């Protein structure tokens, strides 16, 4: 299968995109096996795709506030372009997000791979969220045995969910978490 090196190439490679209306997710097909460093997306092409994808999703009833960067790639150019369309952007970084230095257009996330175990995620959440008052974003590419790229098992998700509930750790979407942080920072500024 040919890899996609520009967003508009997905059009002729394999039929544009797949929209899961029930879950309100957009899948751009195919997922290129290249890394972000090799992704050659010109600014004008990127802007057109950011605008087009948001408009198409909104026409289908999806509320679109967050952009998730492909391949965990991030650039200042992408950050500036995305401000015209989104309230926040999440990219890679393998770090938690903290109130000090908070940037809603450069949120860090941890990717969860098939072989990532529950104790490892608990350790990250304990250290970054509970001990250091950070916000941990976990990126799952699929839940279930044969779903998506690097799927995580439903059993592991249940174990993690049960633990989060027991610890009384609030689970929110990226948009909700960013809004909570913005409000908290605004209160701090006013005090």
Notable traits:
191 residues, two-stranded antiparallel sheet, 6 strands, globular
Question: What is the string of helix and strand elements?
Answer: HEEHEHEEHEHH
Number of helices: 6
Poorly predicted runs are 1-39
Major sheet: size, sense and barrel closure? Answer: 2 strands, antiparallel
Structural class: alpha/beta
> Could you report the average pLDDT, rounded to the nearest whole number?
78
Kindly state the number of beta strands.
6
Strand order of the largest sheet: 1-2
| Content of β-strand | 5-15%
CA(first)-CA(last) distance: 56 Å
User: Which geometry do the CA atoms define?
Assistant: globular
CA radius of gyration: 17 Å
Number of domains: 2
Fraction of residues in helix = 25-40%
């Amino acid at each position: 299968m040919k890899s996609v090196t520009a967003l508009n190439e997905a059009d002729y490679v394999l039929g544009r995109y797949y929209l899961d209306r029930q879950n309100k997710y957009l899948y751009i097909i195919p997922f290129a096996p290249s890394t972000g460093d090799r992704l050659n997306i010109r600014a004008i092409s990127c802007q057109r795709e950011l605008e087009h994808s948001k408009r198409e999703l909104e026409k289908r009833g999806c509320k679109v506030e967050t952009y998730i960067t492909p391949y965990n790639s991030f650039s200042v150019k992408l950050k500036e372009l995305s401000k015209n369309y989104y309230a926040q952007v999440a990219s890679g970084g393998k770090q938690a997000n903290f109130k000090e230095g908070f940037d809603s257009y450069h949120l860090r996330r941890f990717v969860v791979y098939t072989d990532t175990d529950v104790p490892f995620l608990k350790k990250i959440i304990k250290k970054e969220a509970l001990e250091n008052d950070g916000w941990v974003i976990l990126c799952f590419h699929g839940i279930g045995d044969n779903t998506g790229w690097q799927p995580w098992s439903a059993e592991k998700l249940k174990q993690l969910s049960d633990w989060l509930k027991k610890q009384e750790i609030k689970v929110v979407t990226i948009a909700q978490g960013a809004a909570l942080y913005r409000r908290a920072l605004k209160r701090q500024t006013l005090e």
